[in-house]
Amino acid sequence: MAQKSMGISFRLASTRQHLFNKVATTQRLASPWSLRNANVATHHIHNARSNVSTPPSPPSGSSGFTEALGSRKRVKAKNTDMLYYTASILIGTLGLSYAAVPLYRMFCSATGLGGAPMVGETKFAPERLVPRDNHRRIKVKFNADTSTSLQWSFQPQQRQVSVLPGETALAFYTAKNKSKDDVIGIATYNVTPSKVAPHFNKIQCFCFEEQKLMAGEQVDMPIFFFLDPEFANDPDMADVDTVVLSYTFFKARGMPFEKQA
């Protein structure tokens, strides 16, 4: 019995030694390859890490808020400048529109454009108000019109006058307010043929001035004028024997006015 136990112990010890030897052999064979693979893996990991760029750190909450606030202020300032620029253009355009009419009237009066009689102090020098007795007389006819919105009667007191170049003449128009309200009217004028306008000079006139008539009031409106002496020397006037002076009355803006106690 004792011999049988010793045999079994010897076989177990031999088997254990055999297994130990195999494991040691396996480890010696695998170690170089395992080390090499580990080195390769480590090399690849290092390269991958070196190729990846570090992303920029996001701005902090306070700096981002400051940048957004600054951008909003810049946009607001730009919009404000644009608003001021647009408003200045509109105001300038409105001012020019109101000034256009009187400026045009002044230009027409100075140049005779559009049949507007010329006005100017140099035209009224005494040496220019000398009739050309050797020239034919020119008929000056008078015409009157009123706007449909103006309840006035308006007409010339004379149909025509005959004048020499350089000779002054006085004519009258009569206007009557036929409405029950006080009304302000304003008159425009022109001369035909239009080429005569540079030679037609007004010394006194009611045109382009507001004329207020009380309810039922009637007034006489004078026109004092003359033809320039140069009319006689202008070859373009050789075929002109008749000149027509026309006035048209319009209701002024904002009418009718209320009666005052």
From TrEMBL:
Pfam families: CtaG_Cox11. The keyword DNA damage does not apply. It is found in: Mitochondrion inner membrane. It is a single-pass membrane protein. Keywords: Membrane, Transmembrane, Transmembrane helix. InterPro entries: CtaG/Cox11_dom_sf (IPR023471), Cyt_c_oxidase_assmbl_CtaG (IPR007533). GO terms for molecular function: copper ion binding. GO terms for biological process: aerobic respiration; cell redox homeostasis; mitochondrial respiratory chain complex IV assembly. GO terms for cellular component: mitochondrial inner membrane; mitochondrial intermembrane space; mitochondrial ribosome. Its main location: mitochondrion. Residues 47-68 are annotated as: Disordered. It comes from the Eukaryota. Gene3D superfamilies: Ctag/Cox11. The chain crosses the membrane at residues 82-101. PANTHER family: CYTOCHROME C OXIDASE ASSEMBLY PROTEIN COX11, MITOCHONDRIAL-RELATED (PTHR21320:SF3), CYTOCHROME C OXIDASE ASSEMBLY PROTEIN COX11-RELATED (PTHR21320). Exerts its effect at some terminal stage of cytochrome c oxidase synthesis, probably by being involved in the insertion of the copper B into subunit I. This is Cytochrome c oxidase assembly protein CtaG/Cox11-domain-containing protein. It comes from Lobosporangium transversale.
